[in-house]
Amino acid sequence: MLTNNRPQSARGVSCARSRRLCSLQTDRFKTTLGHYYPVDLDAARIERIFSTIIKGLYYRVCKERLPDGCTFEIGRLDPLHVDEVWDQWQSLAHNGPFRLGRVFGCAFMHAADVPGATLWLLWFYGPAHGQVTLVGRNTSPLE
Q1: Which of 5, 91, 111, 136 has its CA 20 to 30 Å from the CA of residue 40?
Q2: Which domain holds residue 13?
Q3: pLDDT tens for each residue of 24-72
Q4: Are 51 and 99 contained in the same domain?
Q5: How many domains does the chain contain in total?
Q6: CA 25 to CA 78: how far, in whole Å?
Q7: CA distances to 75, 87, 114, 124 from 131, in Å
Q8: Strand pairing of 22-25 and 32-36?
Q9: SS3 state at 58
Q10: Beta strands in 10-117 (DSSP E)
Q11: Which alpha helices (H) appear in 32-143, and where do they start and end?
């Protein structure tokens, strides 16, 4: 499930309020990992958007609606682990990949014994543009 992207430290709060460039440091070694502009995210809105996308994709592929009352969890895969996760998916029975041009692609798995329980990989843009890969999971209200 997504969490609000709110800075936890006083320094992070200060950067967020001023909208200035902040440095990202590790807590343990105080090493600077780069710079970023803080952005507030509306986690509930993001989950609504991606649950709507998943419902539409499921209907398009399976020709049936997900059961009412399904719950959704959305998260982002670490870019360093995308290839590893995809390799694991290749050894499992999954549907896809389905692509929409060079901008969007997805693949999913569903539990045969639990109607409406699915696991999704959604990716936006290709590696040349900094691929963003999300994992979506929904659970059936029957679980």
Answers
A1: 136
A2: 1-41
A3: 666 666 666 677 666 777 888 888 888 899 899 989 988 988 888 888 8
A4: yes
A5: 2
A6: 18
A7: 14, 16, 31, 6
A8: antiparallel
A9: helix
A10: 22-25, 32-36, 71-76, 95-100, 104-110
A11: 43-62, 82-90
Distance CA 8, CA 46 (A): 21
Residues 17 and 53 in one domain: no
β-bridge partners, 66? none
Q: Cα-Cα-Cα-Cα dihedral of 105, 88, 134, 79, to 10°?
A: -100
Say whether both 117 and 50 belong to one domain: yes
Geometric angle at alpha carbon 2, from 28 and 33, rounded to 5°: 30
CA 66, 77, 50, 42 torsion: positive or negative? positive
Mean pLDDT of 117-133: 69
Nearest to 59 by CA among 126, 118, 129: 118
Q: Are residues 22 and 83 in the same domain?
A: no
Return the ∠ at Cα 36 (arms to 44 and 128), rounded to 5°.
85
